[in-house]
Amino acid sequence: MRSSQVAEILKGNQAMERALALLAAGEVVAIPTETVYGLAGDATNGEAVARIFEAKGRPRFNPLIAHVASMAMAETIAEFDPLSRRLTEAFWPGPLTLVLPHRATSGIHPLVTAGLDTIALRMPRGFGAQLIARLGRPLAAPSANSSGKISATSARAVEGDLGGRIQLVVDGGPTQVGLESTIVKADERGLHLLRPGGISAEEIEAIAGTKLLRNDKAGIEAPGMMLSHYAPGAAMRLNVSAVEPGEALLGFGQRRAAGAADAVAFLNLSETGDPREAASNLFSHMQALDRSGAKTIAVEPVPHAGLGEAINDRLARAAAPRDS
Fold this sequence. Notes:
By secondary structure, this protein is of the alpha/beta class. The chain folds into two domains: about 10-215, Alpha-Beta Complex (DHBP synthase), CATH 3.90.870.10; about 235-320, no CATH class. Helices cover about 30% and strands about 20% of the residues. It contains ten helices and 15 strands. The strands form three sheets. The protein has a nine-stranded mixed beta sheet, sandwiched between helices. The protein has a four-stranded parallel beta sheet with strand order 12-15-13-14, with helices on one face. Helix 1 (about 10-25) packs parallel to helix 6 (about 125-135). The two termini are about 20 Å apart. Its EC number is 2.7.7.87. It is found in: Cytoplasm.
């Protein structure tokens, strides 16, 4: 339920002191990152972390990512194996999250890890990194949207969803990557891909010198692993070759599904078939087509190579059966 409160939206160069004051008071703040907008709270403050779950309506068995500003901060929270450390050297700061053994002395509140003995860590770029460094403590920051719904890639998208539940949205413009971070975990069996995201499996494999193992375990080990997630209000129909009456169409490339001209609305993830452009447009295009009034969004096939794996992962979760 929305309150009468309306979130304040401030540009990043005007928002730092206000954001710091709210975080220090145990409140939550929506912030831009290179991936999607995050709903940030002090990861060491149980009341702040609880407010994240409350604002999102997020199940408390679903862990959060802790965001850090430096390796020194990261090493007080988790234990790094040589392979994970090599990945940080290549991809931090950036859209890579590592699931690592959690140090009991870290000060991270147990709500962040959802009772697991591991913790998901990421080092962001930009405003988020500056904010964490100024605060001096890690931030828990899942995507700034209602649980299970489309992730926000603009400040206005955050305000339209969570504006009645939070006090501040920091406006950093459209996000660059447009997909959440890739999540990996190293153990004695190898390097596991828990969630495809803004860094492709091929890029990670080139640095790791080993193939990524796709997750073969039951249960939730990291954020973004729930079956139904990233969902619009409309139903989703994937890999279509023809559009049915009354559907909106989410396209990719230059070849159109049959009946495309009769779609209620149409947006193309990338005219040129560029997966990076498609990734950056995915959530905003899904939101726009959801507002068209169509009961179903039909989606043309997107190749699985590179970032296509992450795009197809988000589409599959958006199309998954939902709890009634």
